[in-house]
Amino acid sequence: MVVVNPKNWHWVEKNTLGWSETYFQTKFIPLKYDHNDYDIEIIELDKISGDSNVSQRKGKVICYFDLNLKFKGQVTPKDNAAEPQTFTVTIPEFMHDEDQFLIQLDTASLQPESKNVVSTEFKKHFLDSILKYQADLIESHSAEIQE
């Protein structure tokens, strides 16, 4: 994208929703968490919708996004005695200006022991991973948008 924009003064905007879908497909499929008793991983990006943009004005790069995300996860006991169990992770409003947001876990099909691990340990691992999105988004697009 070549823009005649002396000293990057004028507003330039790039839609990054397609890039975001690819990002979550490659960074989160699989997103693994190794527990003593279970292998826990995200196995599918079920839904992504909303807005994601990188912009620059007056030489400053910013991003803004408001995404609705839904992932499918799987818990596999390490003793291999049981079949893998599935759960879902939904983030109804993943936004650029918040680092604390609602992460809904549907763990109804999980056994009580694995449900506790997913709800505490895996959820924290997931949050730590998803919070890298904004920095990766800006890093990936800042040079291109300032040409």
Automatic annotation (TrEMBL):
GO terms for biological process: protein folding. It comes from the Eukaryota. Transmembrane segments: none annotated. One of its GO terms (molecular function) is protein-folding chaperone binding. Pfam families: Aha1_N (PF09229). Residues 13-143 form the Activator of Hsp90 ATPase AHSA1-like N-terminal domain. This is Hsp90 co-chaperone HCH1. InterPro entries: Aha1, AHSA1-like_N. Belongs to the AHA1 family. GO terms for cellular component: cytosol. It comes from Hanseniaspora opuntiae.
